[in-house]
Structure formats: C-alpha cells, structure tokens
Amino acid sequence: MDENIIIADIKKFIETNILAGDITLDAESILQNVGIDSFSMIEILLFIQEKYNMLVPDDQLIPENFKTMASLARMVNKLSV
Q1: DSSP helix, strand, coil percent of the chain (3-state; round to 5)
Q2: Which of 17, 27, 59, 64 is deepest in the core (most CB within 10 A)?
Q3: Predicted confidence band at 24 (pLDDT cuts at 50, 70, 90)?
Q4: Which residues contact 44 (CB under 8 A, 6 or more apart)?
Q5: Cα 47 from chain centroid (whole Å)
Q6: CA R_g for the chain
Q7: Per-residue b/e over 38-77, b at no fewer than 16 CB within 10 Å?
C-alpha cells in the first residue's frame, strides 16, 4: 500500500472531521501539537479500521504509531502485509 495515499486519506479525514480550517498539516506534523486529543485519536483509529478494513491489534496501540500521519501510515502499511 502506498504510504502517501494513506497519509492523504488520514489528512483529509482529520481536516474534514476534527480540526479547524486554519490549521495546516503535513505528514510529520506532531498530531498532539495541532490539537488532536485522545478522543480524536479514537476517531482516527476507527476511520483507519473502517477505511482499510483492518483491526489494529492492541500491541500496535502505542504512542509512537499515533505521533504523526506518517507514523500512522507506516502502521497501516505494516498491518496490511
């Protein structure tokens, strides 16, 4: 799976459903620093599970995987293999 496409999907979801319109994101933006809280992380996780038809196992629910959109995309890519 192309990580750039995953990042674009996650970015669109975050911009449309979570963040205010004046906040800009890139693949390496620290999500916590732009206003993503734990409730928003759950929304993102549910989006990923639905969009990519996968269950994220408990051992992948670690802060490092949810730090940036790029780290989320790496996790999705790894789980899709």
Answers
A1: 65, 0, 35
A2: 27
A3: confident
A4: 10, 13, 14, 18, 36, 66, 72
A5: 8
A6: 12
A7: eebbeebbebbeeeeeeebeeeeeeeebbbbbbbbbbbbe
**Would you say how long the chain is, in residues?**
81
Comparing CA positions, the residue from 6, 1, 3, 81 lying closest to residue 48 is 6
Written as six digits, the tokens of 6 are 């995953």
CA distances, 25 to each of 10, 47, 59, 60, 81 (Å): 11, 18, 27, 23, 27
Which residue segments constitute the domains of the chain, with CATH numbers given? 3-79 (1.10.1200.10)
